[in-house]
Amino acid sequence: MSDKSPRQSSSKKSEKSLKQKRADKKSAANAAANPAIVPTTGRGK
User: Fold this and answer.
1) How confident is the model over 4-22, as pLDDT tens digits?
2) pTM higher than 0.85, yes or no?
3) Which residue intervals make up region (Disordered) (predicted)?
């Protein structure tokens, strides 16, 4: 009877690990939540 266990070589690795995907998502969310503060010039007063 043949061995039916999965082989490590047959599984395809993703280009990014799950931890890296989570980190990218978190940093993108933080950047969207905290827009850059643009100082105003004093001309409009």
Assistant:
1) 777 766 556 667 788 999 9
2) no
3) 1-45
